Amino acid sequence: MITEQNQRERWMMNTQSARPKKSLMMATTQRCGGSWLASMMESTGTLGHPEEWLIPATVLKWGLRHRIPTLKLRSIPTCALYKSGLRSDREPYAIYQDAVNPRAVQRYLDRLSQVEITPNSVFSAHLQWDQMEVLTKQWNGSFLDLAEQNHWLFLWREDQLEQTISWFRARSTGQWNSVQNAEKVAVYDGAELRRRFLMTVRRNQQWVEFFGLHGIAPFELTYEQVQIDPARSIEAILDFVGERRSNSAGTQRRELTVQRSSETEEWIVRFAEENPDLMDQRFRPFRGTGNP
User: Fold this and answer.
1) Which whole-number Å values give the CA distances from 139 to 70, 80, 150, 187, 216, in the listed order?
2) Do 93 and 18 form a contact (C-beta atoms < 8 A)?
């Protein structure tokens, strides 16, 4: 007779024996081209499926689909009220973040790394810093030991002011990528841009501190490098991981392109006039190993 304890022990054995051969963690902050690069990585057929697996709604939906109880039962009414429009006092990210059951997160990560791999046994994830911070501080989970070999890619943007403006505009308009339509028009807000600029600078630095704390030497690429030569950037990542493009790889699953606005330069000038004390932090010097 198979008891619940037997099933648990069997699941643990399967988890330990079914680790992917390699993992590739792409560390990013908002609006440095992570989704764009992920779509190109996906098209190789050998670099895993670099989705943002830590978005709370994704944790809940994927966990439900694979019978992993990642949802706190008491949070269901709150989620339902938000979806129905009866509750709008909190952002959806905060609501769904609170809905996740921390005790189930590592099981979610383990199962995810078994299922969402390419045929060459590579698992990948696109990690924003704020998602990573929630994982380690609130959800008590880790991506550090999911595979036999762990590879880290640090993608960042040299121009942190342009990055901030892109983030502000995307959040204001609801247009996060080139296949979406803008829902609103972005209006310049100096105070909010300053707040987000400081947040961008800090989150980029927090990734650096994270790598140092864990003794990780990531392969570094910048948004600007990828923009100049996307194909060469992908080849550099394949070389770093030690994989080749699949012969059967198809086209990109999402045809994403770089988003730009004619207002960006105007906003840069205005922000610089209002915040001369921050301009020495606008550009980050590139010191990484990624030289496609």
Assistant:
1) 11, 22, 21, 35, 22
2) no
